[in-house]
């Protein structure tokens, strides 16, 4: 996860509790910051939200009836779920930072850094 590779990772049981919404001890705060704001954070967030939904969607596919109706039911539930998942992403990740006692503005650090790099590249290219 980290570029320097020296972050201490939580044990399996702690990681499962973290996935369920619990907070980790202070010794894992750098790992939490990297998990919530680092590279691949959006992918991890989406995976953590969608995986518990898959058994429910698979169960809907087992309902007897025409396959088009079953697929329609699954899409009718899945698409709004994904929409709200993406819409509430920042709110949930800020909540996770605050619940660990961290500054919620950490969520915007990577975005601001990327915007600054793009601005500098633009200015160096078009403003000599």
Task: Give your account of this protein's structure.
This protein has helices spanning 12-19, 29-37, 41-50, 54-61, 67-87, 89-99, 109-126. With 128 residues, it is mostly helical. It has one domain (12-126). The longest helix has 21 residues, at 67-87. The radius of gyration is 20 Å and the shape is flat. The two termini are 38 Å apart. The mean pLDDT is 88.
Which properties best describe this structure?
128 residues, mainly alpha, 66% helix
Which percent range fits the helix content?
55-70%
State the total count of DSSP E strands: 0
The secondary-structure class comes to mainly alpha
**Number of helical stretches of at least 4 residues:** 7
Strand content: under 5%
Rg estimate, integer Å: 20 Å
The best one-word shape is flat
- H/E series: HHHHHHH
Mean pLDDT equals: 88
The number of domains = 1
The separation of the N and C termini measures 38 Å
């Amino acid at each position: 996860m980290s570029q320097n590779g020296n972050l201490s990772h939580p044990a399996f049981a702690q990681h499962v509790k973290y996935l369920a919404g619990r907070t980790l001890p202070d010794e894992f705060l750098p790992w939490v910051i990297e998990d919530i704001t680092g590279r691949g954070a959006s992918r991890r967030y989406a995976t953590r939200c969608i995986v518990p939904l898959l058994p429910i969607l698979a169960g809907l596919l087992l309902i007897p009836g025409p396959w088009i109706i079953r697929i329609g039911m699954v899409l009718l539930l899945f698409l709004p779920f994904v929409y709200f998942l993406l819409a509430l992403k920042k709110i949930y990740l800020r909540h996770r930072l605050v619940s660990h006692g961290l500054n919620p503005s950490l969520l915007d650090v990577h975005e601001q850094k990327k915007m600054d790099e793009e601005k500098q590249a633009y200015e160096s290219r078009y403003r000599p």
